[in-house]
Specification:
The chain is an alpha/beta fold and 292 residues long. It is built from twelve helices and seven strands.
Length: 292
C-alpha cells in the first residue's frame, strides 16, 4: 500500500514507515518548531553572542511562565554553537553555558554548582574568593560567550540582603568576564531583577506570552503536527482544533506539545493515525485525572 505522506515534513516521512514503538518514541522526542516570538528571542540571543567585547556587555532577561519554552530556546542556542575540543590545548570549549540558579541565592553554592558543571575540583574549605577566581579563570579558558543562568526567580527565596548580593553577582560576572549574561526565569525573575535599578538597566527584558488565537499559533501547531509520524493527515490548522488546543492548554507551549504528542501516541496505537479535537479532549481529561 502506498501512503500519501504529503502532510509530513520531508525529514519525518521515512519515520512513518517504522513500527509503532519507534514512532511513539519519535513523537515523544522534544523538537524545535519555528515561531515568531521564538525567532525574535533567538535573534536577540545571537546578537549578544556575536557582540564585540566591551566594558558594558548587553545582557538579557528571558522570562515567561513555566512551560513557555525558555529552556528550549537556550538549548537551541547551544546546538547552534556546540561545544568543541581545542586539540592543541586539550580543552573542551563551551561557547554557550547554561547553569541553574541555586534554590537559595548563595554565592558559594552558585560557584560550586558552576565548578561541578565544568568538572572542576574544589573543596568545602575553599574561600569564596578562591572559588570565584577558579570559575572566572575556567570560563575565560573555555571561551564562554553566553552565560545563561536559569531559574533566576529563585533570587526571591532569599533575604533582601541575599537578593542584593545575588544580583551583584550577575552584574559582576558580566563585567569581569566581559560576556553576555542571560537571566532566565518566570515573571518572578522580572520582579527580582527590578530590585536593583543598575542590574535592571543591564538586563533587557524579553517576555514569552501565552498563546492566543492568532495566525502565529496556528502556524506553530501546524508545524508541530508535520513532525508527528502519523500516516494520515490531521486538521491541525482548523479553527476548532486551534480553539480546543487553546482552551485545554491555557496557551502554554509545553501543554500544547504534550497534548499533541499524547494524542499522536494514541492514534498510532489504535490505528486511527490522525488526531481530531475529540481526541485532545479525551487525553486532556486523562491527564487531569492522573494528576488528581
Amino acid at each position: 500500500m502506498t501512503l500519501d505522506l504529503s502532510h509530513l515534513a520531508a525529514t519525518v516521512k521515512e519515520e512513518a514507515f517504522n513500527d509503532a514503538p519507534t514512532r511513539i518514541r519519535f513523537a515523544q522526542t522534544e523538537r524545535w518548531v519555528e515561531y515568531s516570538r521564538g525567532r525574535l528571542a533567538l535573534e536577540e540571543l545571537e546578537r549578544r553572542f556575536q557582540y564585540p567585547t566591551c566594558a558594558r556587555m548587553p545582557c538579557m532577561l528571558l522570562y515567561g511562565d513555566s512551560g513557555m519554552g525558555k529552556t528550549m530556546l537556550i538549548e537551541k542556542m547551544q546546538r547552534q554553537h556546540p561545544d568543541s575540543l581545542h586539540e592543541r590545548r586539550g580543552v573542551r570549549m563551551r561557547p554557550v553555558l547554561r547553569v541553574q540558579m541555586t534554590a537559595s541565592p548563595d554565592e558559594r553554592r552558585f560557584y560550586t554548582r558552576l565548578l561541578e558543571l565544568l568538572g572542576a575540583p574544589y573543596t568545602s574549605h575553599d574561600q569564596i574568593g578562591a572559588l570565584e577566581g577558579r570559575v572566572l579563570h575556567i570560563l575565560h579558558e573555555i571561551c564562554t560567550k553566553l552565560l545563561c543562568i536559569d531559574e533566576v526567580n529563585h533570587l526571591l527565596a532569599g533575604t533582601h540582603r541575599e537578593q542584593r548580593r545575588a544580583l551583584n553577582l550577575l552584574k559582576f560576572m558580566a563585567n569581569e568576564l566581559r560576556i553576555a549574561v542571560i537571566a532566565v526565569g518566570t515573571i518572578d525573575a522580572f520582579h527580582a531583577i527590578q530590585i536593583d535599578s543598575q542590574v535592571a538597566s543591564r538586563f533587557a527584558p524579553l517576555f514569552l506570552p501565552h498563546w492566543t488565537e492568532v495566525d502565529g499559533f496556528r502556524g506553530f501547531v501546524t508545524g508541530f503536527g508535520r513532525l508527528l509520524p502519523l500516516r494520515k493527515a490531521s486538521p491541525f490548522g482548523d479553527a476548532q482544533m486551534i480553539r480546543t488546543l487553546l482552551d485545554l492548554s491555557g496557551g502554554i507551549t509545553g501543554n500544547v506539545t504534550e497534548l499533541l504528542a499524547r494524542a499522536a501516541e494514541a492514534a498510532i496505537l489504535d490505528g486511527s493515525e490522525s488526531i481530531d479535537p475529540a481526541m485532545l479532549v479525551k487525553h486532556h481529561d486523562r491527564l487531569r485525572a492522573a494528576a488528581s
